[in-house]
Amino acid sequence: MNERALFNVISKVVGFLMLLSGLSSLLWAFLASRYEQQYNMPFDPGEGLSWFTGGASTLVGAFLCLKSSALTRWLYRIDPPLEDEPEPPETS
Hints:
This protein is mainly α.
């Protein structure tokens, strides 16, 4: 396994972990806001920040999971695969 393939796999794994962390943070923020309304409990600033951090982690994690190959090509300055290139026009 070369370093490019290893970077691609590691970025997917890190993206997946960030995605899980962001979703759990969003779930916690949702539950905290629901109980605040139901029981008239004060909403801590840290719990309010969970909406932002959860959303940001979810977006970055989804980007890393879905676009890790493009990130690898950009980082290592690799040309795109030949399948992505349009075929040249035929001349007679």
